[in-house]
Amino acid sequence: MATRGRQMRGWELMLERWASSRAGGWYFINVANKIDKHLVPATDGRVSTAIGQQVVVVETIGAKSGQRRRIPLVYITDGNRIVLIASKGGAAKNPAWYHNLKAHPEVKVWAKGRSGRYRAREAEGEERERLWAEAVDYYAGYETYQARTGGRRIPVMVLEPVSG
Fold this sequence. Notes:
single chain, 164 residues, alpha+beta, 6-stranded antiparallel β-barrel, 37% helix
């Protein structure tokens, strides 16, 4: 496990351990996300069900369906960019939102102080390694998820603001 740069309180560590468990992952994917995809945009990112974590809602266009989809995700920042980890709780396959971003990289985002239009791209090489390390420092559960993937390398997606 990586050395944590971020200092956490005891309750935050317990919550993080639970969130990275299979039951916690199921809860966030199947319950909290259904609430947050409405709550986060309604409050412009100020309120979410994820206690102690920052959540963004990304509106994508379905790679196959062409329909608009909203997905709440934990994120970190890198300057004015938003960084997303396509972990899907450690599933063997990438999440649908990853495929949506690859097919249609222009997205709308709701996040505290960062709402607007963004363009997505996948981080590679040294940038990916740096952002992955920062993400694991923010939420150690990503390491647990990586171990569960059966060899899938979890993608790191970077959202850059679009002006105009």
